[in-house]
Amino acid sequence: MKRPRILMADDxxxxxxxxxxxxxxxxxxxxxxxxxxxxxDMAQQLRPDIVLLDxxxxxxxxxxxxxxxxxxxxxxxxxxxTMHATPTYATEAFKAGAAGYLIKRSAAVELKQxxxxxxxxxxxxxxxxxxxxxxxxxxxxxxxxxxxxVTSLTQRQREVLQLVAEGKGxxxxxxxxxxxxxxVEFHKFRIMSELNLHSTAELIxxxxxxxxVSVST
Length: 217
Description:
Rossmann fold; 2 domains; six-stranded parallel sheet; 49% helix
């Protein structure tokens, strides 16, 4: 089996530095980035075999980045390496196109297995989240299918929501997304209407609860 080319993404440089040694034992690290938007850009340039990414990242969270990467670089295998051990996040990750899902505290033991599995065309999920529990998260208590996180929002609305929650101003958001200030304001209005929220503080609280941003972001 060839040594895979791996692009790494995590919003903490010290985490990337520590993980690099583990990753280099299994493949070639072709790049390391610290936010979701740079990840999407670099993946398109480098076309790596594997993208190793976190969920909580600035500018664009890992789940939305994965949705874009699945379309833009479908040949790249996505492995989430995150602190989120909640089955709901694992479910959303696989729906977004992930081939693997690991918890950071188990990386030293499981990363090799995950990389080898996805390179064989298989999926890998940490035993810390059992398949039975993962399957259970797909249904709500009344037995009906559970709605995905922020399911009622469009991709662009999720992007605006995350940037608002990160404290970015309207002009800054417009520049990042390459849209007009009026369009940002319209999206923000639609988000608040859709989610029945009434202030930026409520938007931030909602985004944190949904995992779009972390408390430390």
